[in-house]
From TrEMBL:
Its cofactor is (R)-lipoate. This is Peripheral subunit-binding (PSBD) domain-containing protein. Residues 1-48, 67-115 are annotated as: Disordered. Residues 91-112 have a biased composition (Low complexity). Residues 19-28 have a biased composition (Polar residues). GO terms for cellular component: mitochondrion. It holds the Pfam family E3_binding. Residues 50-87 form the Peripheral subunit-binding (PSBD) domain. Gene3D superfamilies: Chloramphenicol acetyltransferase-like domain (3.30.559.10), E3-binding domain (4.10.320.10).
Amino acid sequence: MEPLRQALQHPSHTDDPPHSTTAASPAGTQPAVGSGHGAPAQMHPAGQILASPAVRKLARDVGVALASVPGTGPSGRVTKEDVQACSTHQAAATADTPSSSESPAPAPASLSPEHRPLRGYRRAMVAAMTAAAAVPHCHFFDDIGVDELMRMREALQGSSQLAGQRLTLLPLLIKALSLVLLDHEELNSSLGEDGASIIVHRRHNIGVAMATPSGLVVSKH
């Protein structure tokens, strides 16, 4: 039993721990993981990126920051090809990014559009103005002397028939336009429904739209 006790107290060999087969890399020798785009653009001593005005404009147009573009030109100057390559890479990266499938959040109730019904004068006004917009129009501009018209207005203003009412130029201008339509009948015409003829009218009515709280109103008298 004594030899057995000695064998248990003093084993003939011990299991050494396994040695690692991977050697540690010396400090400073591991390759750096780059972005694949090269170094940033070289900076001038004053802090300005070396690039021509045309290249700067191209970068603005395609939305590329010059500071992120590696310059391959002399002294690290950014060239047009550098900007185009960076723009192509950004477009590819954007295309690879999955878009969010979430629906946009609904707008608050206070920002939702409000539908107000049109009634009465306003509804009729919208219908009349919409129909008038489909009528062929012509415009004529001229400068005229109104000295005689102003003297006529002053003479009529003192008439007893006005009974102290103020006479404006508007009724006088309407009368002048009426006389013009009699002398130039082409101005008192409309396009036929077939679009192949012009209808010359022998009568005319001139109305003036007045702004009222209910909308635009054309008086009959």
